[in-house]
Amino acid sequence: MSNILTYPLIPIVAGDDMMIISDVSVKGNPTRSVSVDQLGAYIGAGGGGAAGVTSINTLIGALTFVGGTNVTLGTVGNTITINSTGAAAGVTSVAATVAGLAMAVQVANPTTTPSIAITFRGNTAQYINGQGNLISLSTIPTSVTLTTTGTTGVATLTGNVLNIPNYSGGGGGGTVTSLTTTGTTGVATLAAGVLNVPNYANTTNFNLASDTGTTTAMAAGNTLNIAGGTGIDTVVTNPGVGAISTINLADTTVTAGLYTNTNLTVDAQGRITGAASGTGGGSSYLAGAGLSINTATSPDTLLVDYLGSDNVILSAPTLISDAVAGDHFMLNEVKTGNVAYSLISDMPGYFQALGVTADTGTVAAIGNSDNLDLAGGTGIDTVVNNVTDSVTFNLSVTGTSNYILAVSEATPIATDRLPWNDFSTNIVRRASIEDVVVAGQGFKSAVLRLDPQAAAAPTLTQIYNTIGGTFVITRLSEGDYNLTSSIAPFTTETLLYINNPNTATPSSGTGELPQPTTIRRKNSTTLGINCYKVDTGTVSGTDDDFALTNDIYVEIKVYTATI
Fold first, then answer.
1. Whole-model pTM?
2. Per DSSP, which regions of 16-69 are E strands?
3. Is residue 348 reached through a cis peptide bond, with omega within 30 degrees of 0 on the bond before it?
4. Neighbour count for residue 9 (Cβ, 10 Å)
5. 389 burial class (0-12, 13-18, 19+ CB within 10 angstroms)?
6. How far apart are CA 25 and CA 101, in angstroms?
7. Which sign does the torsion angle of CA 258, 260, 265, 267 carry?
8. By the 8 A CB rule, do 444 and 466 touch?
9. CA 487 to centroid of chain Cα atoms
10. Element (H or E) spanning 453, and its range?
11. 3 state SS of 136
12. What count of Cα atoms within 13 Å lies in the side-chain half-sphere of residue 26?
């Protein structure tokens, strides 16, 4: 058996696994090792095999293709074809609507074989406006008043006033009760309610129209028959010129008179065709939901029911949309004891909307059903009390978010303010740091550092300053300096300290001696500094600038109770 076959198998080959190969490029064909990745790159890159895909989306190794919903895979050799088995996209449903009431739209078979049918409503006495609604045409006045103003021009109809000029002079007027067409010449006349318009040369421009039927042109020689319909009688009087056709409401068989507890018969035209008095006792009415009838009174009394499960309020229809300010509430008016109604917008405490703004952010609209959240910010806590309907704002004084720790840090100055409790009134007040220091008999201070310079004023650095203002040092002469403040902080109560660790070589003798320095107040804005050296064996001193030997910073401290 081969030695290689006796090695254990590797269930999953990794790219960094090693293989043993023979290197034929070297004499003797020595055995060498190569990784699976190196061998795969050589074969896949054309070094010994066909070029192909080495990875897909960073995945290396065997890949499995699976067809998803409405997808099938077809393979021919090394070619994979991805096919769709879904139906072609198309219209799945049809719907249609129109605005207004002039047309009706109906969609049949909306998801299979849709069709749309449009039906027009209305009649010949209506038209469709811009909103798609039906509007009735203006009607011709049923009563016309005739005037004969003027002798020239055309006839006019304004409202129900017809003016026909009296072309041969004269005048007249009144209400038209009948129409005649006597004569073929002359002017139209109105006498005793009879309008006579001559039939000028057998004119045919007089048309007869009714609610139904065909409009007919009335020519000379035609007869206009004014016939009575249901419940209508007509009668012609004064035959011949000036004949009148009178239209009367036909009498019924009902006898005129007063009836009690009446039993009536009404026909399709709304006429009372039968009437008879009845007998009393018992109500002929039925009380609906929310109503009751009191038969103990005469006549019976119809009452609104406000009690029980069927009262008028509970029996009202359910609200189908949100209430608006123009809706009404029914209520009992205490002053009069009557049931009344009120607009929602007139109710006490009515609230429609509130705009809320803050230092930053977008304006928020708070409506009737919204809640306004009064949230606490940094260092602020809020508490809602649903008994007293109140919100309390508290300063947070504990934890890492309390109102002191929450504020940003800064170096205080004299005009900064501190809160304090006035025990005489138990009121929180404020005071400047300056006022607190003076009231407490404390001191403000400044710490300055001097860096000596040769034959020049030292460089001044401000280490600490609660006094305020700025300090400047100037050299007046050798060993003589002025330290000035931009404000006037120095008083007779000002305390001064200067530390000079420098040493100087004396003008006579040997060695180095400490260099004495003095500081004093000159005025409210200026301090004087004098530096000198002491000669060996003498008590005399000589002005001298701060020594540069053993160069150490000079420290100045100023304490003052006022600014």
1. 0.28
2. 18-22, 31-35
3. no
4. 5
5. exposed
6. 96
7. positive
8. yes
9. 56
10. strand 444-453
11. strand
12. 7
The residues near 312 (Cβ < 8 Å, ≥ 6 apart) are 289, 290, 291, 304, 305, 306, 330
Closest CA to 500 of 525, 475, 529, 467: 529
Residues β-bridged to residue 271: none
CB 330 within 8 A of CB 313: yes
Mapping DSSP to helix (H, G, I), strand (E, B) and coil, where does residue 36 land? Answer: helix
Length of the chain: 563
- Could you please report the per-residue DSSP string of 165-184? --TTS---EEE--EEE---S
One-letter amino acid for residue 383 of the chain? V
Tokens 């809020």, residue located: 382
Strands (E), 220-271: 232-237, 244-249, 263-266
Distance CA 63, CA 65 (A): 7
* In 21-72, alpha helices (H): 36-44
Determine contact, residues 164/157, Cβ cutoff 8 Å: no
Whether the CB-CB separation of 245 and 228 falls below 8 Å is answered with no
User: Between β-strands 495-499 and 103-108, what pairing exists: parallel, antiparallel or unpaired?
Assistant: unpaired
Residue type, 296: A
Q: Which pair of structure tokens corresponds to residue 451? A: 């860096």
Among all chains, which residue has been given the structure tokens 């009706």? 104
The vertex-374 CA angle with 371 and 376, nearest 5°, equals: 150
Report how far residue 433's alpha carbon sits from residue 443's, in angstroms, rounded to the nearest whole number: 11
Residue whose C-alpha is closest to residue 482's, from 532, 533, 521, 443: 521
Other Cβ atoms less than 10 A from the Cβ of 173: the count is 12
pLDDT of residue 395: 78
Which strands, in side-by-side order, build the sheet including 178-180? 178-180, 194-196, 189-191
CA 355 vs CA 321, 351, 352, 368: distances in Å: 24, 12, 10, 12
Question: What pLDDT is recorded for position 337?
Answer: 67
Nearest to 526 by CA among 562, 452, 468, 474: 474
- Residue that is written with structure tokens 């550092």 in the block: 449
Torsion sign over Cα 35, 40, 43, 44: negative
Mean per-residue pLDDT pooled into runs of 10, the chain (563 residues): 57 77 78 80 55 62 71 74 66 73 75 78 74 67 70 70 64 63 72 71 61 72 72 73 74 83 83 80 68 81 75 72 74 73 73 77 78 81 87 78 74 78 77 66 79 89 88 93 93 87 73 82 93 68 76 80 53
Q: Name the one residue in this structure whose structure tokens are 């790159």.
A: 41
Residue 187 identity: V
Which tokens hold the place of 265? 């018969």
Q: Which two tokens stand for residue 530?
A: 């004098």
Distance CA 204, CA 276 (A): 52
Are the C-beta atoms of 447 and 461 separated by less than 8 Å? no
CA 234, CA 232: separation in Å to the nearest integer? 7
